[in-house]
């Protein structure tokens, strides 16, 4: 296995040698040439490399942040995701990575048009009456332009940059290689399990760059809130969307991150965030489909006080079991019952060796309680619920309790919403709002109508099982009759197993004989008058002695 892994590493290195040289050069500039040597990649260090003492003197988190910005879109996105994961890396790194910014230039309109036409197999002029050549926004993965359809609708068109998918795939392979080498050669990094972090990042980034999935997410979200008088979801134009293009209704508003402009509009910030929380908790606890990156740039405030949600590249999906656990977690936070919280973590985690033994569970409960201890007695509005849930998740991971990725996305979204909420309303209480909504959902889950629905579904399943049972039994009997059923019994230490079986048979025989003798002696004692000492008769003594003799004989 080690040989195969080594072959894979060599293949990735050779395949991406040009990009690997660029990364090694950047690492050397920011004082990480020693790391390249430890990873046995020092042959990539440029011959012209000279130490930059000024950069090397910077704090480590800042040096890494500057390095990620220098390396471009994939690495910047990697750092941005890590900035919301204090369960994976130390807090000083997450705080530094929050300052990561894209330094990207706009792609020429000719290239944008070419990508559009190749993705949809349609001519640009056959789709739009007008198209603004100046982008509304430019990010590392895509560019956004305003346009007008032939029918006269104002739309926004999001188009991937040419070559970005190839660059992302190449960078992901290099990141995976570096993570594997780090686990092999850097003991100080190994404890953070970099290979697992990169695998999770790959899943997240590929989902975010899948425009067809993003279009589907937007449509589903719109359907879930079609009757909402508060939340606005843009309409996707499916005939003008594809693998590299998303066309959606244009919604005009102010970014929620621009607090001053929001206030200038005359919108009540407290009412805005309160209703926004209801939307968020409905999406998590009821729909199971939620926006996992609700930062201020993805939320628009409309002049009439409504809120619009845009950019559905990062969306989480929860199972019914996970939704119910989220409800229980909020109730546990309010009650201060952290043993209950830990139990919910364990219930959602796949079974791992030692994860469920009492010593491990008690240690986990103790450490989680210690995380929440500084907040005992404080008003709920002063409790950073999302951050504490994420920290508790990191502790759980160290105790072999692994939470579903989408649940961690919920915690990350809560952290973001808490920050926004407190900017709009210093008295904002995320935990109290969540627990209030959780109670309401819990009541609806156990309403007579819901219970009847559950019973009907269960009855249907049992009916189907019993209806198919005779046929299944008949099939098993037929297979037995035809000799098609085989039982493969594999027992280790077969001789010991045989001795154990022989011992069991002997003990059973002894039990039967002893019982027969004692019953006979008792019956005789009852029917005959014989000498006795207290309640012990002569026949009782004889029966006991005879049983002892049989015991010795059988042994």
- Main beta sheet: 5 strands, antiparallel
- The overall strand count is 13
Tally of alpha and pi helices: 23
Determine the oligomeric state from the structure. Answer: single chain
CA distance, first residue to last residue: 52 Å
Question: Mind explaining what this structure looks like?
Answer:
This protein is of the alpha+beta class. The chain is 60% helix and 8% strand. It has 23 helices and 13 strands. The chain has helices at residues 2-15, 17-29, 33-38, 53-56, 60-71, 73-82, 91-97, 109-120, 164-185, 187-190, 194-208, 211-224, 259-264, 269-287, 320-335, 338-348, 358-372, 385-398, 405-424, 430-445, 448-481, 494-527, 538-554, and strands spanning 128-131, 137-138, 142-149, 154-160, 231-232, 245-249, 254-255, 289-291, 299-301, 307-309, 315-317, 532-533, 536-537. The strands form 4 sheets. Strands 1, 2, 3, 4 and 6 form a 5-stranded antiparallel β-sheet that branches. β9 and β10 form a beta hairpin. It is globular.
Brief descriptors of the model:
alpha+beta; 4-stranded mixed beta sheet; 5-stranded antiparallel beta sheet; single chain; 23 helices; 13 strands; 555 residues
Could you give a quick summary of the protein structure above?
This protein has helices spanning 2-15, 17-29, 33-38, 53-56, 60-71, 73-82, 91-97, 109-120, 164-185, 187-190, 194-208, 211-224, 259-264, 269-287, 320-335, 338-348, 358-372, 385-398, 405-424, 430-445, 448-481, 494-527, 538-554; strands spanning 128-131, 137-138, 142-149, 154-160, 231-232, 245-249, 254-255, 289-291, 299-301, 307-309, 315-317, 532-533, 536-537. It is α+β, with helices and mostly antiparallel strands.
């Amino acid at each position: 296995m080690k040989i195969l892994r080594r072959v894979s590493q060599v293949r990735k290195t050779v395949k991406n040698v040009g990009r690997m040289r660029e990364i090694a050069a950047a690492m050397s500039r920011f004082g990480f040439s020693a790391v390249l040597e430890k990873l046995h990649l020092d042959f990539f260090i440029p011959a012209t490399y000279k130490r930059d003492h000024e950069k090397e003197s910077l704090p480590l988190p800042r040096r890494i942040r500057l390095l990620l910005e220098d390396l471009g879109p994939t690495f910047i996105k990697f750092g941005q995701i890590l900035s919301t994961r204090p369960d994976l890396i130390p807090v000083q790194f997450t705080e530094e990575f929050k300052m990561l910014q894209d330094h990207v230039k706009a792609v020429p309109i000719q290239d944008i048009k070419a990508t559009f036409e190749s993705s949809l197999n349609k001519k640009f002029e056959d789709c739009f009456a007008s198209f603004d050549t100046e982008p509304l926004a430019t990010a590392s993965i895509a560019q956004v332009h305003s346009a007008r359809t032939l029918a006269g609708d104002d739309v926004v068109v999001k188009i991937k940059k040419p070559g970005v998918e190839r660059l992302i795939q190449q960078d992901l392979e290099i990141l995976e290689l570096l993570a594997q080498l780090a686990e092999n050669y850097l003991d100080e990094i190994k404890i953070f399990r970099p290979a697992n972090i990169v695998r999770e990042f790959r899943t997240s980034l590929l989902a975010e760059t899948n425009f067809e999935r993003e279009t589907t997410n937007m449509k589903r979200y719109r359907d879930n809130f079609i009757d909402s008088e508060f939340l606005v979801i843009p309409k996707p134009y499916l005939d003008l969307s594809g693998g590299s293009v998303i066309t959606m209704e244009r919604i005009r508003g102010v970014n929620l991150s621009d607090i001053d402009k929001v206030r200038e509009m005359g919108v009540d910030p407290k009412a805005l965030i309160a209703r926004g929380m209801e939307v968020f908790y409905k999406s998590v606890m009821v729909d199971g489909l939620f926006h996992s990156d609700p930062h201020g740039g993805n939320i628009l405030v409309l002049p009439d006080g409504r809120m619009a949600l845009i950019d559905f590249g990062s969306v989480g999906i929860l199972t019914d079991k996970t939704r119910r656990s989220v409800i229980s977690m909020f109730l546990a936070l309010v009650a201060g019952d952290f043993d209950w919280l830990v139990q919910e973590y364990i219930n959602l985690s796949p079974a791992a060796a030692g994860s469920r033994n009492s010593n491990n569970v008690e240690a986990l409960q103790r450490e989680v309680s210690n995380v929440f201890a500084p907040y005992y007695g404080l008003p709920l509005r002063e409790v950073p619920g999302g951050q504490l849930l994420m920290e508790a998740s990191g502790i759980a991971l160290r105790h072999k309790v692994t939470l579903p990725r989408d649940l961690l996305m919920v915690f990350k979204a809560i952290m973001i919403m808490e920050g926004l909420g407190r900017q709009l309303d210093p008295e904002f209480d995320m935990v109290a709002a969540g627990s209030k909504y959780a109670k309401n959902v819990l009541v609806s889950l156990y309403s007579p109508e819901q219970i009847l629905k559950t019973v009907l579904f269960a009855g249907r399943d049992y009916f189907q099982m019993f209806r198919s049972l005779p046929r299944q039994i008949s099939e098993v009997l037929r297979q037995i009759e035809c000799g098609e059923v085989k039982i493969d019994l594999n027992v280790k230490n077969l001789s010991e197993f045989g001795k154990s079986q022989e011992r069991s048979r002997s003990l059973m025989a002894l039990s039967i004989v002893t019982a027969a003798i004692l019953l006979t002696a008792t019956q005789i004692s009852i029917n005959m008058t014989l000498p006795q000492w207290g309640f012990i008769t002569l026949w009782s003594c004889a029966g006991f002695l005879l049983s002892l003799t049989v015991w010795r004989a059988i042994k």
